[in-house]
Amino acid sequence: MRVTLSLAATLLAILGCLHASQALSSDAAPDPTPPCAAPEFRQFDFWLGNWEVRDAGGQVVGTNLVERKFGDCVVQENWTGQKGMRGSSFNIYSPATRQWHQTWVDDHGTLLELDGEYRDGKMVLVGEIPAKHESGKSVRQRISWEKQADGQVRQLWETSGDGGRTWTVAFDGWYSRIPAAPRDGAPSGTPRR
Description:
It is built from one helix and ten strands; from the N terminus they run αββββββββββ. It has one helix at residues 2-28; strands at 49-54, 60-69, 74-81, 86-94, 99-106, 111-119, 122-129, 139-147, 153-160, 168-177.
């Protein structure tokens, strides 16, 4: 019995030393570089913010809160339409493919997956939505985001039913920032000390 207890105590001591050694080695040399620190992860930062969205005719069509999540690795969009539709997209840069990926989901059951890149001041993502009926063809989707000189962002959504030979505008949205509410209860525009 004493031998068993002595052996168990020795084993526990060895395991304790191993655990302490691993903890010290991982604490002693943490990786100083965050996982999403590459500049490519910041290419979509111009879309971050709390936005009012209008169509090309100037009508308000919804609001969109776009923010960084999950250790600043993901750009998450939170859409609320004027008629109550809600949806969200998750956007991330993939170092493996050197492309951006977006997955959009909403309360209408839509799933849209897009891939693309930031080039010449525009984020352009492309994907396809399968046909809803058996005899139909899938519809190609192309969405671009571009920061304007006045700080707005234009989102142009186009569709193609002929493999990209011709495109039709599905949505031409203009994003304007919603001013932040004062934190201390002062009316908007009141100077703070």
